[in-house]
Design goal:
By secondary structure, this protein is an alpha+beta fold. Helices cover about 30% and strands about 30% of the residues. The protein has 10 helices and 21 strands. The protein has helices at about 5-10, 30-45, 75-85, 85-110, 130-140, 170-180, 285-295, 340-355, 360-365, 370-395, and strands spanning about 20-30, 50, 65-70, 115-125, 145-150, 160-170, 185, 190-195, 195-200, 205-210, 230-240, 250, 260, 265-275, 300-310, 315-320, 325-330, 405-410, 415-420, 425, 430-435. Helix 4 packs across helix 8 (about 340-355). The longest helix is centred in the N-terminal third of the chain and has 24 residues, at about 85-110. The mean pLDDT is about 95.
């Protein structure tokens, strides 16, 4: 499965690390989070080294649908209820600011990346009550929105909440440009980190500060991120021969789809599931069946899948990795909203390393614990992890090298998947998705 971004953009190769290095900041992970963070730190005069076990933008970032939006599903009613309006307003401000931030970088660097401002719609085919409530809360939080009953989707909707001045782009074109001046080493896997030393397959890096921007942080301790989040998969297709939808759309109904345009194509995503579950269904084929009903006769340009990290309370973890490692920082748990979250994260981490105050530090701190917001997902995840760990101890099942949970084989994609924390391996046992770092035999 190759995304439309990979089919349209080629990023030049970088060399593998050779030998030992000293640097101000080491960024582990050359996805959008890592590249943006390194770019901003470099602008602040820091020497930054970025390493990745694969290629630049070769992990989950390349699988995004690249919607730059402050509209994150039914998020604002949830935040207002669980955290209060002040926190919800701060979240809205952070994500609205990220949209403007991308525009500023793209303008100042003169980046050609198909960036355009478009509206985003949160739609339902069956109800308007929930949408009207979400719109009302969004207005109170300072987000300009409207309720509409007509869209350019190829089917009728009961209603939709429209946010204006959102954006979309080709993220690979963007990263290719801002990464060009950065010191990046590809095919360089960090095996372990001890204090200010990162030990790789090709040398040791000594850094004053270390940023874990590798999607799902691989150290088990400290931080215990494996016990605070899980991973989910979704499936995406880019199709031609259909009418553009002129905006971005996210459905709130069960098994609904999301839409956006790219050039003469429409990008459609859906069929979400927890990694390691519902693998008897050919998810990509199921998505295509839905698309064929909506757009009969369409031509498929690309079909791919994505994997997202979901925290128990629904907010990402951005900040200090642990109280026990004051020079480590982490970016993880963006859920399905990586574009704005990664921008906000890069600002926050840059400010922390440079000793500046940031108004969003308490909102996203990994040190938080909000039981009322997290308990449902927390207990569900603990139950699944316990069951899968016990299953891994019994019989002849393959076990995940991360923490020993049972692995399940996905016949349609020919990969092994872990329900506990979302690690994935190819059919031969080679790691393709973290937090696992070791292959299995």
């Amino acid at each position: 499965m190759v995304s439309i971004w990979e089919k349209t953009v080629t990023i030049p190769n970088r060399e593998m690390l050779q030998g030992d290095y000293n640097t101000d900041v080491l960024v582990i992970g050359a996805g959008l989070a890592g590249i943006l963070t390194a770019y901003k730190l470099q602008k602040h005069g820091r020497r930054v080294i970025v390493v990745d076990s694969g290629r630049i933008f070769g992990g989950q970032s390349k699988n995004t649908t690249a919607k730059i939006t402050s509209q994150h599903g039914l998020i604002y009613e949830k935040l207002a209820k669980q955290y209060g309006y002040k926190t919800a307003a701060l979240y809205a401000k952070a994500n609205e600011g990220a949209i403007a931030g991308y525009a500023d970088i793209i303008k100042s660097e003169d980046i050609k990346c198909h960036f355009e401002n478009v509206p985003v719609y949160l739609y339902s085919r069956y109800t308007d009550v929930i949408l009207k409530k979400e719109r009302c809360i969004a207005e109170k939080l300072g987000i300009k929105s409207s309720f509409v009953t007509e869209t350019e989707l190829p089917f009728e909707v009961k209603g939709a909440v429209r946010f204006d001045e959102q954006a979309q782009f080709n993220p690979m074109e963007f990263v290719k440009n801002i990464a060009s001046s950065l010191e990046i080493y590809e095919n360089t896997e960090v095996k372990k980190v001890r204090g200010k030393c990162a030990f790789t397959n090709a040398g040791t890096i000594y850094a004053k500060k270390i940023v874990f921007a590798s999607h799902f942080p691989f150290p088990v301790v400290p931080g215990f991120y494996f016990a605070r989040q899980h991973q989910e998969r979704s499936y995406v297709a880019a199709v031609k021969g259909v009418k553009n939808v002129n905006g971005m759309y996210y459905g709130i109904d069960k098994n609904s789809l999301s839409f956006r345009d790219y050039e003469d194509m429409v990008i459609i995503s859906g069929e979400g599931r927890r990694t390691g579950e519902n693998m008897c269904i050919k998810n990509a084929d199921a998505l295509k069946k839905k698309i064929n009903r909506i757009f009969p006769g369409c031509e498929y340009t690309a079909v791919w899948s994505a994997q997202d990290v979901i925290t128990h309370d629904g907010l990402p973890f951005i900040g200090r990795f642990s109280i026990f490692e004051p020079d480590w920082y982490v970016i993880t748990g963006a859920a399905k909203w990586g574009m704005t979250t990664m921008y906000t994260a890069s600002d926050l981490i840059c400010d922390m390393i440079c000793g500046k105050e940031n108004q969003y530090s308490k909102l996203y701190t990994p040190m938080r614990f909000h039981l009322s917001a997290a308990y449902k997902n927390m207990f569900k995840d603990y139950a699944i992890s316990t069951k899968e760990y016990i299953s891994g101890l019994c019989g002849e099942k393959k076990r995940c090298t991360h923490m020993g949970c049972a692995l399940h084989y996905n016949k349609s994609e020919r990969v092994w998947e872990c329900r506990c924390h979302g690690s994935r391996y190819d059919k031969d046992g080679i790691v393709i998705d973290n937090p696992a770092t070791d292959d299995f035999s």
